[in-house]
TrEMBL record:
Transmembrane segments: 6-23, 66-87, 99-119, 131-150
Descriptive protein name: Rod shape-determining protein MreD
InterPro entries: Cell_shape_determining_MreD, MreD_proteobac
GO CC terms: plasma membrane
Organism: Thermohahella caldifontis
Key words, A-Z: Cell inner membrane, Cell membrane, Cell shape, Membrane, Transmembrane, Transmembrane helix
PANTHER family: ROD SHAPE-DETERMINING PROTEIN MRED (PTHR37484:SF1)
NCBIfam families attached to this UniProt entry: shape_MreD
Family per similarity comment: Belongs to the MreD family.
Amino acid sequence: MISGHGLFLVCVSLLAAWVLAWVPLPGLWAFGRPDLVALIILYWAYRHPDRIGVLAAWGMGLVTDLMLGTHLGTHAMAYAIMTYFLLNVQHRFRLYGMLQQSLVVFLLTGIAIMVRHWINQLTGVPARDLMFMLGAFGSALFWPFVRYTLDYMGGRTL
């Protein structure tokens, strides 16, 4: 069970990520937007895999689908798969340096983005080009900030 402070920190970090996901970005900046909800899910699954797992990621993805108005289950499936892969390599992930962790985050968020676009293709929403993959690059660049910020706020000690 997550303590009162820990549950508050998880909720605040997710709420902040959802609010920032609503903020529109102009032009090409929108393509490189880091998936903050995915980064928050990855952080909590990395720090507390016994408390935040695939089912929690699926639920957070469902809320993201409802909030963004995407097809129901799109983000849920992508975040669940992403979290599953992270939990399979979590012991190695903890030993990696920040650059290696960022590379793994790039791969995991890239998988999540590809799953979302695959589902969109199945439902009739065409992808014009591969610019949508810039979000994985933005997420990898933003990972150190998310990790150090949440560690500083007490995420490590829940």
